[in-house]
């Protein structure tokens, strides 16, 4: 493949040694290369947190936004230029706490983009406070006696909210994760990939070894990803295993397919030189 390093940057990541984010960054680049994409064909939007730095370290168009706001930015990018491959990414605190409202509506809206969430159960950037997916009983600076809330189930929320592609990967297996991201990008509509990400500094009990002893591929079990009910059953299984792979794959049309103004060409290429907005401005005075 020509220029296999085209998604590399001169700047190097500053994550903690051993951080699962390295595996996710590597998987994204593997996916883009496998699809033979060029840097100018891809845009990544991110939120705040350790995960939010990824647009700085992958050589594509990037937008580093506000906490919990990666999905509105990604939606705007896709609708302005629906020829772009758009990836939204962020952490579990970013997407499942501050950004929860955007997450639910992105699932039901079904804009053609891929949302990757680094799920480690903590707010890593601010030294490990428990996140919405943190385990019950997890002790942190904000929950010194242990978290008393039940952890969120983002996969179940996505499936029930109408997401068209729902999957889970593992940061310790960038090869398989890269294929999952590639599949999500190729899927027409909103693709959501929750990634079990190791945080070696603030949630070390869930180490690479801990996950490797528990993850298992849904494909190997004969899972049918077209069955929404079976997908929810796979999310809530209680056998000590953590299934990864595609939980649900639908076939609903993407949001932008219903927008006639995008039928001919991207909005950014529309000729607006003859548009006179003065009458509209005068109405507002």
Please provide a brief summary of the model.
The protein has 285 residues and is of the alpha/beta class. Helices cover 29% and strands 17% of the residues. The chain contains nine helices and ten strands.
How many distinct domains? 1
Assembly type of the chains comes to single chain
The neighbouring-strand order within the major sheet is: 2-1-3-4-8-7-10-9
Task: Give the full name of the CATH homologous superfamily.
Answer: Thiamin diphosphate (ThDP)-binding fold, Pyr/PP domains
Tell me, rounded to a whole number, the average pLDDT.
94
Binned strand content: 15-25%
Order of helices and strands: HEEHEHHEEEHEHEHEHEH
Q: How would you characterize the largest beta sheet?
A: 8 strands, mixed
> Alpha-carbon distance between the termini?
58 Å
- The secondary structure category is alpha/beta
Please write the CATH class name: Alpha Beta
Q: What Rg is obtained from the alpha carbons, in whole angstroms?
A: 20 Å
Poorly predicted residue ranges: none
Q: What characteristic shape results from the CA principal axes?
A: globular
CATH topological fold name: Rossmann fold
State the CATH architecture.
Answer: 3-Layer(aba) Sandwich
Describe the structure.
This protein has 285 residues and is an alpha/beta fold. It has a single domain, classed as 3-Layer(aba) Sandwich (Rossmann fold), CATH 3.40.50. 29% of the residues lie in helices and 17% in strands. The protein has nine helices and ten strands. The strands form two sheets. It has an eight-stranded mixed beta sheet with strand order 2-1-3-4-8-7-10-9, with helices on both faces. Strands 5-6 form a two-stranded antiparallel ribbon. Helix 8 links the parallel strand 9 and strand 10. Helix 1 packs across helix 6 and helix 5 packs antiparallel against helix 8. It is globular and about 60 Å long. The model has no long low-confidence stretch (mean pLDDT 94).
């Amino acid at each position: 493949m020509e220029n296999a390093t085209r998604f590399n940057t001169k700047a190097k990541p500053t994550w903690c040694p051993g951080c699962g984010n390295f595996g996710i960054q590597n998987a994204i680049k593997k996916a883009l290369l496998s699809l033979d994409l060029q840097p100018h064909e891809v845009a990544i939007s991110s939120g705040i947190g350790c995960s939010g730095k990824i647009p700085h370290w992958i050589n594509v168009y990037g937008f580093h936004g506000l906490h919990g706001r990666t999905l509105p930015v990604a939606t705007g990018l896709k609708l302005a230029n629906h020829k772009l491959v758009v990836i939204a990414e962020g952490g579990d605190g970013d997407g499942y706490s501050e950004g929860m409202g955007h997450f639910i509506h992105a699932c039901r809206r079904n804009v053609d983009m891929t949302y990757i969430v680094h799920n480690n159960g903590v707010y890593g950037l601010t030294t490990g406070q428990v996140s919405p997916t943190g385990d019950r009983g997890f002790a942190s600076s904000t929950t010194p006696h242990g978290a008393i809330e039940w952890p969120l189930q983002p996969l179940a929320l996505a499936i029930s909210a109408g997401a068209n592609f729902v999957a889970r990967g593992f940061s310790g297996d960038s090869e398989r994760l890269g294929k999952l991201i590639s599949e999500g990008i190729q899927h027409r509509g909103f693709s959501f990939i929750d990634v079990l990400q190791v945080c070696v500094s603030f949630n070390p009990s869930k180490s690479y070894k801990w996950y490797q002893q528990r993850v298992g591929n849904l494909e190997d079990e004969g899972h049918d990803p077209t069955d929404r009910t079976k997908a929810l059953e796979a999310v809530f299984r209680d056998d000590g295993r953590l299934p990864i792979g595609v939980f649900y794959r639908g076939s609903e049309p993407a949001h932008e397919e219903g927008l006639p103004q995008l039928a001919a060409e991207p909005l950014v290429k529309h000729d607006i030189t003859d548009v006179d907005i003065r009458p509209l401005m005068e109405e507002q005075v």
